[in-house]
Amino acid sequence: MKEVCSITQKPYPKRLIFKVVGYSSSTWYEKPVAKTGKRGRKPLHSDETVLHEIKVEIQNSVFKSEGYFKVKKRMQRRPNNAIRAGKERVNKLMRENDLLSPNRRSRSTKKNDHKGRIITDKPNIMWATDGKKFWINGSGWHWFFGVIDHFNDEILAWHIAKIGNRFAAMEPVRSAIRKQFGSVNRDVCRGMELQLRSDHGSQYDSADFMNEMKFLGLGMSKAYVRSPECNGIIERFHRTLEEETSTDQAF
Questions:
Q1: What pLDDT is attached to residue 251?
Q2: Structure pTM?
Q3: Are 173 and 202 in contact (CB under 8 A)?
């Protein structure tokens, strides 16, 4: 590519040469000519050894998705049989063998399937609570928090808030307890069969919410992860809200 044009007396541009020979410039730059000069130190471990140890680290990992850098660091920090390899080398080996996190098969996770009956035979045995975000034209986003009885689908209390945090989630629970039992004093629900069903939303798993339930003496019954049917009573009520609310104020 150092040949000079007879007219311009300048070397031919690479783009013109690629066009003439039908070669892609991206292919050329992806596989550049190897540099000449003194080679670096010989690696301590062969590619086969490093690849084997990479697979061992992935197999023993408690995480589902990790990049090459964490795998490299863990091999390097082993108390025994430590493996030192450059990050580019580890990345190359993992990429060539489909071991990078997007290509790993996710491990099977244990899921608790809910096959029981959630409807109770009498009131005040199981309550459910949850939040639902909805839009009101001219006012923006709002949150609806409600408490429902699993016995007859009665909404015992509800609360609307602009900010759907843990404190807003407490309001309908406290209102329902005051309505049913006359107060929200300490241990007002202690000794009852009553439990409160909720999912694992940030509002309901927060320390403030859980401490308030302990103060009231109200036991919690958490729904299984990825099993919305556990909280199906209030989830079905939310669906009814979506169906019945107009488009101007749709949930």
A1: 47
A2: 0.55
A3: no
